[in-house]
């Protein structure tokens, strides 16, 4: 048998693994690659057998990467991204005036898009491709040069710079607040709470919010949502309380669509970061976008804290 020069598994199988890891789903990978889930499973199994180590853990909700799987995924995603960059550069033959930036749906809706008219007015010849995903694995798409992420500032193969931090407090509709006038922090456990099942682990849920407010909660009443934007819509429709992230819900409070409920306010454990691939040089167009985001973030950092005072620089 002829040995492969780089001693790698089948490149087709590695491409299948990368898609499955990025989606955290064999089914979605199969849809992307136009094959059956069974074919994806067989390719993954062949790689695992060749490596002698499992790459995924199967559970009732789907699949999650093992430690070995995470390591292989980061290497492949970075390599495929770089290869795509070189191929695209060869095809175009010159620098592109398109920049792709990835962020969550709620950050795009509540923070980035409302500010974009200023960017377009200054840079009318720059075209921005907004890559909107809740699952941050999709931020590794090969054409994405910039990402805005919430977290603690450390992601594999990414260079991160803090844009701003945040504060958290309960919010609801004005009518809901009137209906429960006089309620305090201890009463929150008895009210309908709107929870969000975040993909990112650094977002806080009601259990931790209440604990930090000095309230021990048992089984909580309320509804669960897969997106923060939908939970906000439910709160504005008088359906309950949602955890408000000040940088995102501030405009809705100014408009009167939402109001703060009780005086509970805590600093968010993480912050919003602008990140890029550590192994990839930014294009001139991406640097234009980066500098504009830095300017917008600097203005945000100068706004007062919810509890009074000013945030740290």
UniProtKB/TrEMBL annotation:
Keywords for the protein's UniProt record, in alphabetical order: DNA-binding, Plasmid, Transcription, Transcription regulation
Molecular function GO terms recorded: DNA-binding transcription factor activity; sequence-specific DNA binding
The keyword Transferase belongs to this UniProt entry's keyword annotation: no
GO biological process, any: DNA-templated transcription
Annotated CDD domains: PBP2_GcdR_TrpI_HvrB_AmpR_like (cd08432)
Source organism, top-level taxon: Bacteria
Location of the HTH lysR-type domain: 9-66
Keyword Glycosyltransferase: no
Record-linked PANTHER family: HTH-TYPE TRANSCRIPTIONAL REGULATOR, HTH-TYPE TRANSCRIPTIONAL REGULATOR TRPI
Family of this protein: Belongs to the LysR transcriptional regulatory family.
Protein name (Swiss-Prot/TrEMBL): DNA-binding transcriptional LysR family regulator
């Amino acid at each position: 048998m002829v040995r492969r020069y780089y001693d790698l598994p089948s490149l087709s199988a590695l491409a299948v693994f990368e898609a499955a890891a990025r989606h955290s789903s064999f089914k979605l990978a199969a849809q992307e690659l136009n094959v059956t889930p069974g074919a994806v499973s067989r390719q993954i199994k062949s790689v695992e057998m060749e490596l002698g180590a499992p790459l995924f853990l199967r559970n009732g909700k789907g699949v999650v990467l093992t430690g070995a799987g995470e390591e292989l995924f980061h290497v492949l995603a970075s390599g495929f991204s770089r290869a795509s960059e070189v191929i695209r550069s060869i095809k175009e033959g010159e620098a592109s005036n398109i920049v792709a930036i990835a962020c969550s749906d709620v950050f795009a809706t509540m923070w980035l898009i409302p500010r974009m008219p200023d960017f377009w007015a200054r840079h009318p010849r720059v075209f921005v491709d907004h890559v909107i995903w809740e699952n941050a694995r999709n931020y590794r798409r090969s054409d994405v040069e910039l990402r805005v992420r919430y977290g603690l500032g450390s992601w594999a193969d990414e260079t991160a710079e803090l844009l701003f931090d945040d504060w958290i407090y309960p919010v609801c509709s004005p009518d809901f607040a009137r209906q429960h006038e006089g309620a305090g922090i201890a009463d929150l456990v008895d009210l309908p709470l709107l929870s969000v099942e975040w993909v990112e682990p650094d977002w806080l849920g009601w259990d931790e919010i209440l604990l930090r407010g000095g309230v021990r909660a048992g089984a909580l009443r309320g509804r669960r949502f897969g997106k923060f934007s939908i939970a906000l819509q439910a709160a504005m429709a008088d359906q309950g309380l949602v955890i408000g992230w000040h940088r995102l819900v501030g405009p809705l409070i100014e408009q009167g669509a939402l109001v703060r409920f009780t005086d509970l306010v805590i600093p968010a454990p993480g912050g919003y970061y602008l990140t890029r691939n550590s192994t990839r040089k930014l294009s001139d167009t991406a640097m234009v976008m980066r500098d504009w985001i830095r300017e917008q973030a600097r203005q945000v950092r100068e706004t007062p804290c919810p509890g009074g005072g000013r945030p740290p620089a």
